Amino acid sequence: MDWLAKRRRRITLKKWLTLTMLLGSCLLCAQAYAATKIGYIQLVKIMQSPQADESGKLLLKEFSGRQAALEKLKKEIDAKEAALTKESAKLAKADFDKRTEALNNQKVDYNRKQRELAEDFELRKEQERNKLQDRVNKAVESIAKAEGYDLVLYGTAAYVGKKGVDITDKALKALPK
Q1: 42 CB contacts (<8 Å, ≥6 apart)?
Q2: What's 48's DSSP letter?
Q3: What parts of the chain have a pLDDT lower than 50?
Q4: What distances in angstroms separate CA 86 from CA 50, 52, 75, 93, 106, one per listed residue?
């Protein structure tokens, strides 16, 4: 019996030590997690900010001349088409065909210019978006270094509870002009 009692005590001591080690490691993990400082940036809010609006206004100003020229060309085509429809009964077949072909060529040219304008606009919009994203990245990096953030998340999050976690307003203020 004496031998059995000693064995039970050893097993209990081993269990106690294992449990103590497990609890200690859990506490260390919790402390390491608690020390992690996390920030969150709302990209939607930044894309709706005055800094993003400035980029949009710049693009509209840049492409307004080409857009106006396209609208003028469209009005010209519409006027020629209306005139051709109105005069079609009076025109000879050869003259009507010649004017119709010229009008169709002008429409093809208009569609090409419209497509080119849209492609150029999208390209410039992407360039401006990338510039804004670079500025946001620099602002976030400076805030993260200055305030000791370990992790900063962009975009969507399942849950953002603490107000101190959302650093979007700080990032907007730190954006270089």
Answers
A1: 166, 168
A2: T
A3: none
A4: 50, 48, 16, 14, 19
